[in-house]
Amino acid sequence: MKCLFCSFASASQERLLRHHRLKHRRGAYWPCVYSDCVCTFKTPGALKSHLTRSHCQTAKIQDKFTFFCDLCEFREICTQQSFFTHLGHHLKKHETVCCPFLRCSFKTNNLKTFSSHKSRKHKHGDIRTCLRADLENEPVSIETDSSDQPLGICNEEDTLPSSSGNSDVQEKEEYVDAETLEHRAAGFFLRMQTELHVSRHAVQKIVEGFNDILHLSESHSQQGFKAVLAEHGIELDDSVLHKIDAVLETNPLIVSTQGKGALATDHRRNLFFKDKFPVIQPTEYTYKITHKQTFVYVSIIQVLGTLLRQPDFVEKLVFSQGDNPGQFCSFRDGQYYKDNGLLGVQDASISIGLYIDDLELCNPLGSSKKIHKITAVYWILLNLPSKFRSTLPLIQLACLGKTVDVRQFGYDAFLYPLIKDLGFLEKIGVYIEALDTFVKGTVFCVCADNLGAHSLAGFQEAFNVEKFCRFCCISRDQIGNCEPRNFPLRTVTQHDSFVEQLKLTDKPKPCVNGVKSSCALSKLSFFHPVTGFPPDLLHDLFEGVVAVELSLCLKELIRKGFITFDGLNNRIKQFPYKFSDLVNKPQAITKTSLASGKVNGNGHENWALLRMLPLLIGSYIPEQEQSWEILMDLKEIVEITVSTTLSEGTLCYLGNKLADHRQLLTDTFPEFKLKPKHHFIDHYVHLTRCFGPLVDLWTFRFESKHSFFKQAINDAHCFKNVLLTLSTKHQQLMAYLLDTQQLFKPKLHVGSVDRVKISSLDEKLRTVLEKKYPNEDDVSLAKEVHLYGTQYVRDMIVSAGECSGLPEFFRILHILVDKWWKVYFVTTRLSSWYMEHYRSYQLIDNCHSDLEILDPETLNDYHPLAAYQVARTLMVTPRAWLLQ
Fold this sequence. Notes:
Elements: H1 13-23, E1 30-31, E2 40-41, H2 44-54, E3 64-68, E4 75-79, H3 80-92, E5 97-98, E6 107-108, H4 111-121, E7 141-142, H5 166-174, H6 178-194, H7 200-231, H8 238-249, H9 252-257, H10 266-276, E8 283-286, E9 294-297, H11 300-307, H12 311-314, E10 327-328, H13 335-339, E11 350-360, E12 373-381, H14 386-389, E13 396-402, H15 403-409, H16 411-414, H17 416-427, E14 430-432, E15 437-439, E16 441-447, H18 450-457, H19 492-504, H20 537-559, H21 565-574, H22 579-583, H23 591-596, H24 603-617, H25 626-641, E17 646-647, H26 648-668, H27 676-682, H28 684-691, H29 700-704, H30 706-716, H31 722-739, E18 748-750, E19 753-757, H32 763-772, E20 778-782, E21 784-787, E22 790-793, E23 797-803, E24 806-817, E25 823-835, E26 840-845, E27 851-854, E28 868-870, E29 873-876
Helix pairs in contact: 6-10, 6-31, 7-8, 20-24, 20-25, 20-27, 24-25, 25-26, 30-31
């Protein structure tokens, strides 16, 4: 067998797998060693099981066919045995099953009777030639490609490495030196400390036990040597045995983990990590010489330099300017990027996105509340496409400080080293070897919740004040009266004049039109607080407006008797959620939360509840019910704002929808007072034109980064110099991920495929495949794939294209993975109608439509959907806006 990635060859699958582990691991996933197999795996154990199951030369290859079941919607490409197993499930429920063989009218609802009939009458029956009459005219048989061997298998006539020639190359390829073994062992210990959160004390005990076991294995290895040599009639004297013992003692794993070995103690391991792994150490700073309070900073210049030396990282960066007139696909299409004096002018520039937030390390309801509350500053490189930026390892740490110290000494002191490095980036830049030049950059925006954004930007941090908005100068009493086009928007010049007025006032807590201080980041040449703080969908919508209006409208629907409180919760609990909806399903609503004016879910759960509400209770609500229309308008607003691509026409529609929604809300509930977050979302049309799609700049993924620090301190059980402890552990984790190339999720992950001949497929499928692959004899069909972390499964619904102004929907029947690791969906087009009352689409299967092959890149939205049967109607509710 030959290696897919180099010239190494071996007759042993085990040796090929061992070579593959050592030489060709691809970051966070493991590709199959055979060149004609497109499967990838998350663990080496899964890869080994796949090789044994699918590529063992002695494995029995079974024929596969397309089987239909009369009792359910089962239609699978599987073996004959698998089909009979499926029929057995029906028989266990005492359902009547017809014998699947031709010219046999036997029926039964007893499993033992069916098995007895099959063994007596059809012992040697082959379904390929004995299909029932209703399938007689349908060419459904599918045969596995059993004649062709995988590229990695050598026949007897093939030239294998000879003992005199290529075997030396083979041994050299497979040889692992002491330095590599030591590095792998260190990487294992580093992973235990960082990714697996094993305490340092526990790691030390594991190292000592590991070393003891290695010592005990020496005598076992020595006896093994003796037995092998005795078998060949070779006798050894004591001097030779001593030399063998000496060789065993030189095992790098023993040497490095004992005595003064490089991995023997925690201190030595940390020194080894600094020397052999790309660890960028955090630096500890004091706020003032006369004070002991400290904070830590990780150099953004050093981290950028390390990342930009990674070829896999650099090849994914995008430096081109936005060139989509009338379309908003990324932050480069926004006006603020185009007006930036550095980013909008330079042909190649680095765009940085910062994030700031406070987090509690301990239980926020316990006795340690606020004692260990810290302020964290993260950053991410916005030059990466948004499909990569959701990966947590790409979110880097900049600063950690105790919140009480940040409040005492101010952001100017806390962010001083960061601002210094960012100033260097603006003036000098960092060298990118692939471009052979220095590339400058700056901060494009700071993502934060409203409190964090106002605190850093220098606006008032209370939202019950007169001037509460950082985007305009509207007063609190004008929230429900002023149209968005009449908002007095803040400008750079105006804000600078407000800051100058602050310097001239003698008031103890001065404030000018909502501005209470200058922004620490204003020291940068190409950043301004008016244009640098985008809104946050998570806190404005999903934990704000959505939570409030769900509570308000559901209480009204319950009061009018359309639904009951218990009936609503029963529908939420018992609804048959599918696929990703099952992961993010909403939680039951409590009476306490309804009374408080906000439902009790988090952002994801509130989003899921609003999206699934039409399918849950839509059939119980009468047409034109105003409370229901408020929720459905809000659902439509959410779909538009979470879209990754928006047109100018869609933004105009969003503006009208926001105005109509606000008017309907105030008319239906005249006593309800609009919240400041209702005003913030009125700015979304304008802010999308400024920042691009707002979903790309929300705080959802940044907040997920907090979980690492909470887990790390929970396992450390030590709060001595907690800032340095957490930052050091984080940087060691980043070093491990860089060393193992696990920064990115794999583009494609496939667990298993069926290799089938095109010529033996049914007519519809064969026709589209022959047109797609005219020179191919067989194809790989998968039941499930992951593209950039998004799961696609057969029977999911996807949307592509449009007809008469409405999106078209397709059901995934098969998933193709070609030999270039490119994925396509074999689909059938569904007839669809828009249901205004549900803000969803009704679907009807069209059995006469031809199959179509879709490229995932052409979908209206990358999120796959699930179809649900609601009141005898098949319906699908979108996650994002499907029209442009």
